[in-house]
Amino acid sequence: MKRELRDVLRLLEELERALREKEILVLTLGREIKEHTSCSTASKRRSASREAGDDLRHLLQQLESEMSRVRERIVIGERERQRSRRNGRSRKA
């Protein structure tokens, strides 16, 4: 009977050791999953930031193009005004 009890205790100790090893493995895997998730989240944030930067660059290009058209209109308007002033003076003379 004592021998059987010793065998049971030995088996119990082996089971406890195996359980501790599995617990360590689970904790390690949990940590790795957490790290991977945070890396994945950071990657998604970087990607979203790049997209926002691309959108802003595109918007800036559109604004620059519109400003260019506005400058052209201003130049044309100035020419028209100067031409109409000259025509007004030549008629008075």
Give a concise summary.
With 93 residues, the chain is mostly helical. The chain has one helix at residues 2-92. 98% of the residues lie in helices and 0% in strands.
Indicate the structural class: mainly alpha
Please outline the major beta sheet. Answer: none
> Which strand-content bin applies to the residues?
under 5%
Discrete helix count: 1
Radius of gyration, taken over Cα atoms and rounded to an integer in Å: 40 Å
The helix/strand series, from N terminus to C terminus, equals H
Distance between the termini: 137 Å
Could you outline the blueprint of secondary structure elements for this entry?
Blueprint: H1 2-92
Keywords summarizing the entry:
mainly alpha, 98% helix
Q: Could you characterize the architecture of this molecule?
A:
This protein is mainly alpha-helical and 93 residues long. It has one helix and no strands.
